[in-house]
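Now for one record.
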Amino acid sequence: MITVTEIRALNIAAAASTKRPLHLSAASGLVCVGSTIYVVADDELHLGVFSKNLPEPGRLVRLFEGVLPDKKAARKRMKPDLEALTLVPPFENFPHGALLALGSGSRPNRGRGAFVALDSDGTVLGPPREMDMSPVIGPLHDAFDELNIEGAVIIGDELRLFQRGNKGQADNAIISYSVWQALAALQSIKTDPIEPTAINRLDLGYISGVPFCFTDATALANGDMVFCAVAEDTENAYRDGPCIGAAIGIVSHDGRLLSMQQFDQPHKVEGISARQNGDIIDLLLVTDPDDAEIPALLLSASIAR
C-alpha cells in the first residue's frame, strides 16, 4: 500500500472571477519544470503556476478566451475539460520547449488544447497558442465507444496518449503517434487527420466490481511510464462518481504492465510527476475532489522500483 503526504492545497492569489474560490478544485494534469509546478484543472480556462519550494499562493495563466458559468451543471457542460499536460522538447516555433495541454475529447467542446511556450529557465514565455485537437483525436472516435484522453507523455519520437475507461466501458489504452507528425498537425490551421501508429489496450484490474482506469501518466528517463489510476464508480465518461480506490503503476516502454500498487486511501489523483532515484521513484500528485468548494491538493509519495 502507498501512503501519501500532503504538501499543500492548490490555493491561488486571484481567481478567474469574483465568484470563484481562491483555489483550484479539479486538478487534472501536472508537470514540474525546475522549481515550478504547472497544473491544469478540468473546469478552468487557465493554467495554474505554483512554486515547488514555497507555500505562497499560485497564479493563473489564461489558456482560452471567454468566461465559464459559475453554476456547477452549466460549467460542466461548457468547460474545455483539460485533462492532460506534458512537457514538449524544443521544436519548431518553440526553441526552449513548451507545455502541451489537451482536452479529454469526450464531448465536441472538449477537443481544444494549447501550447504554452517556455523560456530557457522553464518559465512561461508569451501568450499560449490555442489549437484544435481534431486531426489527432478525430480517428479515435472510431476506435473507442467513449473517448476520454486523460494523460500524455513524449518518449523519444513518440507522443503517447492515455485513454481512460469507466465502469460501463473499461477500455484503457495507450495510443501512440509520431510526435513530430502530431505536433505539426496540432499547429496547422488545416490538415488531414493522422492515424495512430499503435493502440495498446491494458486491463488494470478491478476493486469491488469497479475497474481501475488511467487518470494521468509521466515518463521516466529509460522510457518506462508511471501512471496513476482510480476506480471511480461511474458508468460513462461524463458523470462523476465516488472514488473507491486509487493506484500507481508502471508500464514498460514497449507497453507491458510491470507493476501496480494501491493507495491506502482512495485519493482521487488525476495528475502525476515522477523522478527516479536509484530503486526509488519519488512522486508528486494532484487531486480532483469533485467539489468546487474543496481545494485540490499537492501530494507526495514514493514507490520502490
User: Anything to note?
Assistant: The longest helix spans residues 179-187. Helices lie at 72-78, 134-137, 140-143, 179-187. The chain has a mean pLDDT of 94.
